[in-house]
Amino acid sequence: MLPTDLIPDSLVFDGGQPVTLLQKRAGTSCALPIQNATSGPLTYNQVEALGPLGLVGSERNWSLNATDVGPAGVLPGDFLDDGSNRWTILTASLATLGARWRCVARMQV
Question: CA 57, CA 89: separation in Å to the nearest integer?
């Protein structure tokens, strides 16, 4: 049987890094520390999903631990800060049996 609690597995992902998620909700902002976020190139489906937003060349695929994110989730317009760059969330979806948020984010210039 497939285990449904994959959250502990996120602690062993290679290349994870701490980031800060800035959730913007109803005129307020909440900064949340996210442990072990991973990033990489966009998948084909993510490129297709961008549609009218288009690519400018500074987009990345981010994966965030759902427990760290909390019940407010991740929405387009939220921000990620990796310590050297700030990223604007373009798309977000809950994946990996609800354990991870998959996000497409664009680096701000």
Answer: 15
